[in-house]
Structure prediction request, 69 residues.
Amino acid sequence: MPKTSLEKSHSKVSNFKLTMINIIAAISFCLIFVGLILLNFNKILCIGVASTAGIVFLLSCFLISRFTR
Prediction:
């Protein structure tokens, strides 16, 4: 028996994917501020952490906007 669209959209795999994307977004958002805090200690490390976290955050925002159930 084929699954209905509601069953497909609320599957464990779909929920897991959305959860992982949101966790990555939350962690990268926090790392942006950690990188900015490092500005007082090491400017090269600050730029590396903040820019990498910013790129990952933007990518995860894109993935959230493109996510379909």
Notes: The chain has a mean pLDDT of 88. The radius of gyration is 17 Å.
